[in-house]
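Tutorial, part two.
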Amino acid sequence: MPCTPILGQVTSRMTSALAESSRPFADVDTIADVLLRNPGALVLTGAGISTESGIPDYRGPDGKRRVTPMEHSEFVGSSVARQRYWARSYIGWARFNGAEPNDGHRGVAALQRSGHLGSIITQNVDGLHQRAGAREVTELHGSLGDVICLDCGAVHDREFLQALMTDANPGFAELATGAASDGSRVSSQIRPDGDIVLADDLVADFVQPTCPRCDSDKVKPDVVFFGGSVPKERVDHCFALTDAAPALLVLGSSLQVMSGFRFVRRAAARGIPCLAITRGPTRAEDLLTHHLDAPLGETLKALQERLIQ
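Running the prediction step on this input gives:
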C-alpha cells in the first residue's frame, strides 16, 4: 500500500521523551502490524478521542489538569453545590448533547466491524462511540444521558429533566448570554462532564431539579464524579475483558487516574502488547510496548487504510 502523508506527520510529532525511550519506535505501520497480528484488541478510550467533536479534555498534552471538575463529595454533601452544578450543566447540555462523532469514533467502529478491534472500555460519558456505530461498549464512568436519584434510586432520562428545568427556569438560557468579553455569560468551552463556567449571580437564582418520584434534590447524572468509585461489578467486567484480550489499545488518555490505568497495568502484567495513540506522555510509559503521539482522527483513518481491504 502506498505511503500516505500522515506517516511523516505523525513521526515528526513524537515527543522527545518517547524518542529517548527503549520502546520500539512507533508509527502507523507499526501499530497496524501489531493489530494485524493480534485481532480483536481491547480498546480503552479517554477524553482525547472526543476533543475533535468539540468536547475538551481535562488535561492538555502536558498531562496537567486544565480545569477542576465537581468532586463527588462536594456534590452529595451540599444542596448549594448541586444547584451550582445543575445551573452550569443546564446551559452546557445543549452544546454537549449536540456534539457529533468524529473520525476517531468512526474509525474505532469501522475497525471493530472488520474484526481488528474488539470490545471497548470508554472513560467518556458522551455516548459518541455508540452513535458512531460501535458495539460492546462499556461506559466505565456511566452516561450523562441518565440521571439517578441518590435517595430513592429512580433513573430518569436527562432530556426529561432538562425539560423540567426549562419549565422551572423560564428565560434562564437567555439571561446567560451577552455579558462577557467573548459575547456570552458562559465559558466558550464545555467540559468533558457537560459542565460549563457560569456567573455566580445567575447560579443563585437557578431552580435545581428534584426527583419526579420522591421530590429529593439529590438527583445526580448517572456518572462517576472525581473522587467517586466505579461500581465493583463494572470494574470486574473490565478486568475480565482485559484478561481475555490479545492486545490493549489506548486511545486519547493520559492514564493519569487509576480508573483506566489499572487495566493497562493488568494487561502489561499478562505480557500482551499495550499500545497507545494519544497526545503527549502518559502515566504508563514504562508499561507500553508502543506509543504513538499523534491526532486520533487522521491516525485512525490511516489505520483503516492499512487494515481494511
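Residues 1-22, 178-189 have pLDDT under 50 and may be disordered. In part three we will examine how such features are distributed along the chain.
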